[in-house]
Specification:
Distance between the termini: 59 Å
Radius of gyration: 25 Å
Number of helices: 8
Structural class: mainly alpha
Number of domains: 2
Strand content: under 5%
Order of helices and strands: HHHHHHHH
Helix content: over 70%
Shape: elongated
Length: 233
């Protein structure tokens, strides 16, 4: 198992980083490859790529913020409902707790003792019901903003990777496109490798899987650009 600081990485932070970086990279790579077969004007390529970078980053950050905020509001609403039910329908809530423990293998006197103990701790009982009856995870007050910022920043970074070769090789667009694909593949592999390194799984398999998924989506832009260009009158 991994050791050191990586084991303490917040899972939401990891998923937000993967979401933003992969989405930005794949989106801009697809646009760039589609444009390379459609135009030799590097200014058009820059404008389209930068516009996509800005729009995608802001959009992804906003979606991450609003979706995480919605999850927090849902959790708070369901939490309040559970609190009300614990106060007004204690027998029903007690039986739901009993069912949870019964599914864990407790029975008889041991089951009765577990129910009695958890019922004596309302906060623990509430947390138990939220996690194992409703299957909802808590969302902290600062998580929506944090998720939005992480996704926005990761999308910018991911979007910049395939664009860099075109900045340094503005007169060699096809060479830049090849280098862009290679850099994007390396970035995708690194993201997949890091995902497996900080969670579970085989690092090289996770990296290769991310490369195949990401480049397949990105190369779709090349195919569409090629098809559209061949049918322009």
């Amino acid at each position: 198992m991994p050791t050191g600081p990586e084991t303490h990485l917040h899972p939401t932070l990891l998923s937000d980083f993967i979401l933003g970086s992969q989405d930005g990279l794949v989106n801009v790579l697809g646009i760039l490859l589609g444009l390379v077969v459609s135009t030799s004007d590097v200014r058009i390529i820059y404008i389209a790529a930068l516009a996509a970078l800005a729009a995608e980053s802001i959009s992804m950050g906003a979606v991450a913020y609003t979706s995480t905020r919605a999850r927090r509001l849902l959790y708070l609403a369901e939490q309040q409902r559970e609190i009300d039910e614990m106060r007004t329908m204690p027998d029903m809530e007690r039986e739901e707790v009993r069912e949870i423990f019964r599914n864990w293998g407790f029975e008889g006197a041991e089951l009765d003792e577990m129910v009695r103990r958890i019922e004596a701790k309302p906060k623990a009982m509430l947390d138990l019901m939220m996690a194992f009856e409703l299957r909802l995870a808590p969302v902290s007050a600062d998580q929506p903003l944090n998720s939005g910022l992480v996704v926005l920043a990761a999308t910018v970074v991911g979007s910049a990777i395939p664009l860099m070769p075109f900045v340094f090789l503005p007169t060699m667009l096809h060479t830049a496109a090849v280098i862009s694909v290679v850099l994007s593949g390396i970035m995708l592999f690194a993201v997949g490798w890091y995902e497996a390194r900080t969670t579970i799984g085989v690092t090289w398999q996770s990296g290769l899987r991310m490369v195949l998924i990401g480049l397949a989506a990105g190369l779709g832009g090349f195919a569409i650009g090629l098809l559209a260009n061949s049918h322009v009158i």
